[in-house]
Amino acid sequence: MNKPGPTSHSTFMDLAVKLAARHMRAGAGGPFGAIIVHQGIVIGRGWNEVTSGNDPTAHAEISAIRDACRQRSTFSLAGSVIYTTCEPCPMCLAAIWWARIDTIYYASTRDDAARIGFDDAALYQEVSLPVHQRRLPLIQQPSDKAAQLMREWIEKEDKIPY
Amino acid sequence: MNKPGPTSHSTFMDLAVKLAARHMRAGAGGPFGAIIVHQGIVIGRGWNEVTSGNDPTAHAEISAIRDACRQRSTFSLAGSVIYTTCEPCPMCLAAIWWARIDTIYYASTRDDAARIGFDDAALYQEVSLPVHQRRLPLIQQPSDKAAQLMREWIEKEDKIPY
């Protein structure tokens, strides 16, 4: 199947916005939605459920990735694209990376989000800083057992790489 | 209750390593575990379930956050700390930020992880780059409806901030 053209892009984005609108109005959480598309077919849907789901990781993109992977029984979404109503935060950008999604289409920007009270800029800065310059304290508590377990992983013959 | 002293730190880290070991050996996923502690009590447990759970977001830290929030019926873990067997990847670091966790204690480093095939360094670099320099294509598909929905959020009277 061909890649979606401009019309399809706006159709898919409209779908993501509709999801965001419906669930925001129902009290699920913030005004954000996302869909995952594989070869022109919607395979995953997500919306913000942080407050209603008591889950700070339930941003629209994370929820859409989890939905698509559940639907397809896979942990790789290689060959898929994501449409999200707003530029992903660092958590979601990294999740999209781990899910092996090919391309991100987004509507509003992080500046638009900042204007309605979602300021991801500080978090982008935090993630970019060397460990010792971060605001969130990160303290090493070395463990021989943790080191040994990592060696055990190398030797594990039936492991599934990811 | 006082903050845990050095002995408690190693006891909590041992618990995280035990979780990691048990579930790695059972085939859940990679050699990673995490626990969330609030006032000396373990309130959340997580281990890597990427491959067994078909969920690329199911890193130990994310799973522990979701477990703690479910147990406590909250989307904020302010006042809690996390013990993780390895330095968090950018996805997990950002999730810990959103969960409002106070402090991260980690055992192995991202360099240790790289030596066993988990190279988060490229992802840390990706997240730190300006959008146009990234490897993962990020394309704007502007949407008036998305912009309108963000304005609706500002005016929504019964919204729950997060």
Describe this structure in a few short sentences:
The structure is a homodimer of 162-residue chains. Chain A has 162 residues and is an alpha+beta fold.
What would you say this structure looks like, in words?
2 copies of one chain form a homodimer. By secondary structure, chain A is an alpha+beta fold. In chain A, 42% of the residues lie in helices and 18% in strands. Chain A has helices at 6-25, 60-72, 90-98, 110-115, 121-128, 144-155, and strands at 33-38, 41-47, 80-86, 103-108, 138-140. A 4-stranded mixed beta sheet of chain A has the order 2-1-3-4. The radius of gyration of chain A is 18 Å and the shape is globular. At the A-B interface, α1, α2, β3, α3 and β4 of A face α1, α2, β3, α3 and β4 of B.
Question: What distinguishing features does this structure have?
Answer:
homodimer, 162 residues, alpha+beta
Topology:
The structure is a homodimer of 162-residue chains.
Chain A: H1 6-25, E1 33-38, E2 41-47, H2 60-72, E3 80-86, H3 90-98, E4 103-108, H4 110-115, H5 121-128, E5 138-140, H6 144-155
Parallel strand pairs in A: 3-4
Antiparallel strand pairs in A: 1-2, 1-3
Structural class of chain A: alpha+beta
- Low-confidence spans of chain A: pLDDT under 50, at least 5 residues? none
**Span from first to last CA of chain A?**
27 Å
The total count of helices of chain A amounts to 6
Percent strand of chain A: 15-25%
H and E order of chain A: HEEHEHEHHEH
What is the 3D shape of chain A? globular
Number of DSSP-assigned strands of chain A: 5
How confident overall, as mean pLDDT of chain A? 94
Rg for CA atoms of chain A? 18 Å
Most extensive protein-chain contact, per-chain counts: A-B, 88 and 88 residues
The percent range for helix content of chain A is: 40-55%
Largest sheet of chain A: 4 strands, mixed
Q: Assembly state here?
A: homodimer
